[in-house]
Amino acid sequence: MYSAAAATASPPRRDFISVTLSPEEAGAAGGYNNSKAWRRRSCWRKWKQLSRLQRSVILFLFVFSAVCGVISYTNMGEPWKSLTNKSLDDQRTEPEIPGLKLANPAVLPAPQKADTNLGDNPELSPQKPPRAPHVRRGPSNLQIKPPRRDVRLKTRHDTSRVVEEPIQADKEEKTEKSIISWRGAVIEPDQSTEPPSSKIKEPEKPSSVEAEDQKEPVPITDRQRAVIEAFRHAWKGYKDFAWGHDELKPLSKSYSEWFGLGLTLIDALDTMWILGLKEEFEEARKWVANDLVFDKNVDVNLFESTIRILGGLLSTYHLSGDSLFLEKAKDIGNRLMPAFNTPSKIPYSDVNIGRGTAHPPRWTSDSTVAEVTSIQLEFRELSRLTGDEKFQKAVDEVMKHVHTLSGKNDGLVPMFINTNSGQFTHLGVYTLGARADSYYEYLLKQWIQGGKKENELLEDYMRAIEGVKKHLLQRSQPKRLTFVGELAHGHFSAKMDHLVCFLPGTLALGAHNGLTADHMKLAEALIETCYQMYAQVETGLSPEIVHFNLHAQKGHKDVEIKPADRHNLLRPETVESLFYMYRFTGDKKYQDWGWEILQNFNKYTRVPTGGYTSINNVQNPSNPEPRDKMESFFLGETLKYMFLLFSDDIDLINLDKYVFNTEAHPLPIWVPA
Ligand code: DMJ
C-alpha cells in the first residue's frame, strides 16, 4: 500500500496521478467495500506503479502467449475432428448384440451380410454388359505366334514350384487369404490376383486377342497344317450335305437332327477362329446372324445344349469380340432357365426352348449327376457378362446342394439325382465315366474360373481324387498300366470308358494350378494308359469302353474289348489330355502319340466325299464298319485339341487365362494369373 506521502516524495511523473486512498478511506467514502470498481482501481494503481520496463515485459509476455494460443488452437482442430468422427464410426460398427464389444471397432470393416446366395461365390458382382460392340470380324491370326524359347522351362517350373514351396514368413497374412492345404500340399493363393469383382465390372474387350495381336506370330507347324486340312475336309462334308443341321451323315450325304439348331456349326465356330479359317468363320457367322432361331417348339437336353451351344457362343464371343454371339448366348441361356423350376432346384434334363417348359425323361424323375453339375462354367460366365445374377444363382445352388449330400463314397458321387427330393439315387455305383465324369472336371474348373477362392469346390475335388485313388485305381497285366475302374456295391470292375481319359488332363491342370505333385504323377500314368487304349487296338483307335486284364495270361494284352463296346465316336478325351500334358511338360512324346491318332482317324474314319465318320469296329482294319455319323464334338473338340497339341505357343489359348468347358470351348478365367 502506497502512502500519499511516499507518493509525493517520488519524482513527479507525467503519466500518472498521485492519489492515495486507503481501502478504509475508500470504503468510508464510497460505502462500498471490496467492490469491482475498487478492485479495478487497485489493479490499475498497481499497474501504474510498475516501471516502464516491467510493463513492457508483461505486455510482451501477454501478446506472445496470445499468439501461441491461437496457433495451437488451429492445430488442435484436426485431432478433434477425427476424434469426433471416430466416435461416430464406433457407434456405427458397434454390433447389435448387446454386451458384445468389438476389440477395436474403429478399424474393423462394417459387418457383412451373409445373406446372398452368391455370398461366398466369387464375386459375381456381375459384370456390366459389354460396351459398344467391339466387332472383329474373322478369326485373328492367333495361331501365328513366335515360338517362345522359355515356354517349356516356364511351364515345367510352374508345376513343381507351387507344390514344393514352403510356407513363407508372411504365413499369417497368407492364411487370411485362405490358404488351403490338403494332406501336406500347400496351395498358395496367387498374390497377384485381384478380386474378380474389381476385374469383372468393366468387361473386357471380350478377349485377349488384342494383346495377342501385338506379339510376333508363331509359324504353324506341319502337323497343325494337317489338322487344318482335316478340319477343312470335315467342314466340306458338313457344308455340302448338312449345312445348318445338327450332324453330318457323311456316307449317306445327308444329316441328322437332334435339336435342330445347327449344332455342328455352332460347336465348330471357335475352332475355326483358332485355326485361322476366316472364310469358313464368316460364312458360319452369317448363318448364325440370319438363320439361327431359338424360338422353336423343340425339346433340348439342358446339358448338351449348354456345353455345346451356350459354351460355343460364349467362347466365340470372347475370341471374336462380336456381340452377335453374346446376344445369341443370352437368348439360349434365358430359354434354358425353366429347367431349374423343380421342387429341389436340381434341374430337369430337358427343356422346350420355345414353350418355356421343362421335364425329366419320360421314364424317371432323375437327372444325371454329370449333367446337372457340368453346366456351371457357362451359366456363371453368362451372369458375369450380362450382369444378371439369376444364371449363376441357379447353378451355384446345385453345386452347394450336391456338396452337402450324403451318399458319396470318399468324394465319389453316384450317377443319378432326383429332381423332386434332391437326393442321389441308385446309390453304390461309382465311376469316372459316363454320367459322372464331368462332375469332377467342373469342380476343378469352376475353382479355377472363379480365381481359386471357392474352397468347397476344391475340397470336393481333392476328396474325390483321393476317393479315386482309394477305390478305383488298379494296375493291369502284363504292362502294369494304371487305370481307373468302377465300383458297384463294393465290387471292383476293371472297366474303363474312353470318357475317363479326360482325367489325366484335368489332373495336370490341377497340378499346374498348385495342387499336389501326386496328381501330376497320376496324370502321367493315366495318359500312358489312354494312349495304350489306342495303341493296343488293331486300327490304332480306341473303343468306347475297355476292360483291363488284372491277371497275366499268355497271349493277352492289357486291354480287352467286348463286342458291344468296340465302336469309336471320334471322341476327344485322350487328345484333350495329350494337349494338357504337352503344355505342362513339353514332352514331345505326347505330340507323337497325338499324331499317330490323327493319322488313324484319317485312315479309318475319313470319308472321301467330305467328313469323318464314327465307326463300329475298331478291331477290324479291313472293315471298321462306318456308322455314317460325324459328331459335332469332332470339330468342336477333337480337332481343336489336336491343333493346340501340335502348337508350341503357350499363348494360343493360354491356360492361365482361359479354362476350357467340357466341350472344349475356352472361357476366360475371371482372375487370370
Ligand atoms: C462331349 O460332348 C463332352 O466332352 C462331354 O463332356 C462328354 N462327351 C462328349 C465327347 O466325348
Automatic annotation (TrEMBL):
Gene3D superfamilies: 1.50.10.10. Its EC number is 3.2.1.-. Its main location: endoplasmic reticulum. Pathway: Protein modification; protein glycosylation. One of its GO terms (molecular function) is calcium ion binding. It comes from Halcyon senegalensis. The keyword Transmembrane helix applies. The lineage of its organism: Eukaryota, Metazoa, Chordata, Craniata, Vertebrata. It is found in: Endoplasmic reticulum membrane. Disulfide bonds join 501-530. The active site is at residues 304, 437, 544, 573. This is alpha-1,2-Mannosidase. Pfam families: Glyco_hydro_47. It comes from the Eukaryota.
